[in-house]
Design brief:
Layout (H helix, E strand, L loop, with lengths): L15 E4 L13 E6 L6 H11 L4 E6 L3 E2 L7 E2 L20 H18 L7 E6 L1 H13 L21 E5 L17 E4 L9 H10 L3 E2 L1
Parallel strand pairs: 2-3, 2-6, 6-7, 7-8, 8-9
Antiparallel strand pairs: 1-3, 4-5
Helix pairs in contact: 2-3
GO molecular function, one term: palmitoyl-(protein) hydrolase activity
Family: Belongs to the AB hydrolase superfamily. AB hydrolase 2 family.
Protein name: Phospholipase/carboxylesterase/thioesterase domain-containing protein
Length: 216
């Protein structure tokens, strides 16, 4: 059981908003579930918080996290990628930009804050990501299922590893450059339009190479 309700001060190196469930007249204990919201390319936590407030799920604390870096050239908004690149065919920002940095930041947040400080278990944590945030969420879920005892420094972790409650990814599949070693048992739901380029048949197959349970 969780022992502490997370607050914004628990995430000093991230910009987050926290949406609490409707208060229960019979309990002051921390909510038993966590939902992490990861916005899309060029969005902000403040904007995506409106979605969290509309959801306001029972017995669930929703943490909306802002991308790890601002977009350049006064484009506004934030992103989750290791770099910023443009599609040579369309000129649009490339969504699949590598997620090594985001994975380190997000997995550290889950492990140090939600698990160690607040007492949550992985099975009590779910991720909802939109676009590039969905890709970051899938990379995070995979990382949380990997043993990292051989790592050193800030990346070392000898606590719980395994599947999380699930990942819902809207309009994005697993990254082309993501590691495909082993299979993760976190349930995954991929949501996209019928003719989506980002969630093509190849992209779905790629995701199924990494995750054992994938629905679309």
């Amino acid at each position: 059981m969780p022992t502490k309700t997370p607050t914004t001060s628990d995430f000093p190196n991230l910009t987050v908003t926290i949406t609490h469930p409707s208060p229960s007249p019979t309990s002051t204990a921390p909510s038993p579930n966590i939902l992490l919201l990861l916005h899309g390319l060029g969005d902000t936590a403040a904007s995506f918080t409106k979605f969290a407030q509309a959801l306001r799920l029972p017995e669930t604390t929703i943490i909306t996290i802002q991308g790890i870096a601002p977009l350049p050239f006064d484009l506004g908004g934030f992103h989750w990628g290791d770099d910023v690149s443009f599609d040579s065919a369309t000129g649009a920002l490339e969504m699949d930009a590598g997620f090594t940095k985001a994975t380190q930041v997000l997995s550290g947040m889950v492990r140090r804050t939600l698990i160690t400080e607040c007492g949550y278990r992985l099975r009590e944590i779910m991720v909802f990501g939109f676009g590039q945030g969905g890709m970051a969420g899938l990379a995070l879920a995979r990382e949380l299922g990997i043993e990292s005892k051989s790592a050193t420094g800030a990346e070392a972790w000898d606590g719980e590893v395994g599947p999380i409650s699930g990942v819902v990814s809207i309009g994005a599949a697993y990254s082309v450059d993501g590691s495909r070693v082993g299979k993760n048992r976190s349930p995954v739901l991929l949501v996209a339009g019928r003719d989506s380029v980002a969630v093509s048949d190849d992209a779905v197959r790629r995701t199924k190479l990494v995750f054992e349970f994938v629905e679309e």
